[in-house]
Amino acid sequence: MPPPKDVVKIAIQMVGAIPQLIELQQTKPLASVLKDVCDAWSLPNAERYALQYADGRQIYITESNRREIKNGSILRLTTSPDQEAEQLYSGIQSNNLDVKTDSLKKLASLSQDVTFAQEFINRNGLKQIFSIVEEGKDTGEMLAHTLKAFMELMEHDFVSWETLSATFLKKIVSYVNMNAVDTSVQQLSLSILENMVPTSRLLFELVKKEVTLDCLLNHLQVTNSQLQLKAMALLIALLLAATEDERRDMMDYLREKNIRQFIHKNIIHSSEPLGDEMAHYLYVLQSLSLNLRERRMRTSMDPYVQEQRELLHSLRQVAFESESEAPAGAFSTERRRSLCAKEFRKLGFMNNSNPAEDLRRVPPGLLALDNMVYFSRHTPNAYSRFILENSSREDKHECPFARSSIQLTLILCEILHVGEPCSETAQAFYPMFFGQDHFFEELFCICIQLVNKTWKEMRATQEDFDKVLQVVREQISRTLALKPTSLELFKTRVNALNYSEILKLRQTERLHQEEILAVPVLQLRERLKPELLQLIRQQRLLHLCQGSLFRKISTRRRQDKLWYCRLSPNHKVLHYGDVEEGVHAPPIESLPEKIPVADMKMLLVGKECPHTKEKSSGKQNKDVLELAFSIVYDVEEYCLNFVAPTRYEFCLWTDGLNVLLGREMTSERTQTDLDVLLSMELKLRLLDLENISIPDTPPPIPKPPSNLNFCYDFSQAEQ
After folding, report:
1. What fold does the segment set 7-79 form as a domain?
2. Alpha carbon distances (Å) from 529 to 428, 447, 541, 674, 679
3. Under 8 Å CB-to-CB from 186, ≥6 apart: which residues?
4. Residue spans of alpha helices (H) in 21-113
5. What is the domain partition of the chain in residue ranges?
6. Euclidean distance between CA atoms 387 and 448, whole angstroms
7. pLDDT (tens digit per residue) in 121-140
8. Could you give phi then psi for residue 17, rounded to 5 degrees?
């Protein structure tokens, strides 16, 4: 008979004693439980002891978290948090260096526990840590333990970052700016500053002033990948906390200092593989850089602003230089206006008498004008060739440069997500972005020439404008999906993907679609589905058994803390626990926490998850909503909350958990995988029917013969 739900069977250990196996009554006060345990070992003063998990994160058991204890848990009797805090508070003030170092090391470990942290902070322990740092006597390992303990204590949000003294902050900054400092101290100092920046405007300004961009660039050039990562994290934190104008100034300075070359050489093409965290920071840096164009993208042209008017007329002057050189008195005002209108029409403006009207549309607004001017100034020969070539064509077949540029700019903004907030989890960046100054403008220069090339290949007329730009969008998207490493490679590949290639790809996809829509084929698909769905279920469960790495995401920042979750080989228990950076596949024995699959009640996704309700509902959390899921388990309905690193992982995990719950797999990946498997299986089954048209209906069954006297009578033959 199973035990009642308010009773859990556990083991309790103590150094030098035989473990106790007890049935923990969850309704019994914890103080009474401790007294019984101490009495069994004849220990006086039970109030000086506490229970703690023996494995994994060794957190203290309190009245608030005792319900999380599961059957089979192993606990340890240890010193109570208040006693431990008192001892360590004394230990870190000791004159004996060994005692002090050991105390700081233990403090750094125990500070992860919220109960201990509160006790230590209540004893004014942070003040003692401040004094250790401010005095500056301790260095190396001792200082690293001190900074680690400070980080863990501040993580619990009991104390505001704004209460830190100026002396303490300057000391932390000095560790970042000094070269002759232990690497671990520099990494922790960078992490402290990264945590500090988003909390208040005052701290942002202080860090921005004291830690120069040059210093961070120097850290990006070192060979230590962890130091690079922490420096990049602080740089991103500063950029995210800055106002738009400050961010623009910072990005301009970084561009002057060739940050893209540092990143391209020392990070992207480093001998070490790029980690997920660094990939995310590079994505954010790319996104912030592209978003600097948002202001121009959302500003329509004002013909009364002289600067904008001059930019517009420079397009005409570069294209028709010889015609524009005529002296001012050579033509009347009316004649000159007529000539300008004619030239603007040749440039491809729809409203040639007032071309500013074409640029009132937002987006792309003035960004389209900027791109056209950049193209005309940096590749004048290609620009002139585009304009003159189309000027000599018949009216119907000319490719309108301005109209194409405006639409192309909009397409590039949509593909590159210009103006959209940075995702908290995305890692998709383009390596070629860091290989080229003025990436967006240079990409436009390649793509506007692609428009002209595709226009000619399609023999398009003005009525085909939308069709041509649709093909161009497809060419760009398909090429970017290949992740070319440089713009030159992008140019080669996108030009190779000409209109005839696009038609072939479309035809192949269409034929495949038509083939699978024949009635007999549809019937065969339905017969194959159950078997293939079972194959997908097995694959999902296998993925859960291999496990995945998840990040803990807070409202304040993207955390460095990682945890791992995996399913037991017998599919009966989910194991999970915290892991260190760089651990990719921890053994199942090292994951202390467990959830029996039998206790799982339901799966929540997106907005239904408790950890997404706690977060603000701004645009920046949209990606978290798309990747969040939770398991509700046990009668108390506890939740284990996940934020998947990618959409792919989200689909595999939600599918696998649904399989464990005996429910249908609902992710879009299931349908994609099923389509791929069905397509492969159908092709194999229909291999012998190649080039034979399959009728929609089966052939008619012939009528029975008028008589059945066509059988040979063997008995008569024998006579």
Report:
1. Ubiquitin-like (UB roll) (3.10.20)
2. 33, 43, 18, 8, 11
3. 175, 176, 219, 227, 230
4. 30-40, 81-91, 97-110
5. 7-79, 92-290, 298-322+334-510, 530-671
6. 12
7. 998 888 999 888 888 776 77
8. -135, 155
- Rounded to the nearest 10 degrees, how much is the dihedral formed by the CA atoms of 389, 391, 394, 397? 70
Q: What superfamily in CATH does domain 92-290 come from?
A: Leucine-rich Repeat Variant (1.25.10.10)
Torsion of CA 142, 144, 146, 148, to 10 degrees: -150
Question: 58-80 b/e with 16+ CB inside 10 Å = b?
Answer: bbbbeeeeeeebbeebebbbbeb
**Does the predicted TM-score (pTM) go above 0.90?**
no
How many residues in total does the chain contain? 719
Query: Before 363, cis peptide (omega within 30)?
Result: yes
Q: What 8-state DSSP symbol labels residue 636? A: T
Summary count for the chain: helices (H), strands (E): 31, 11
Distance spanning both ends of the chain, measured CA to CA:
82
CA 503 – CA 27 distance, rounded (Å):
71
* pLDDT tens readout for residues 183-221: 899 999 999 999 999 988 999 999 999 998 999 988 888
Single-letter amino acid, residue 5: K
**Single-letter code of the amino acid located at 631:** I
Token readout for 713 is: 């009578």
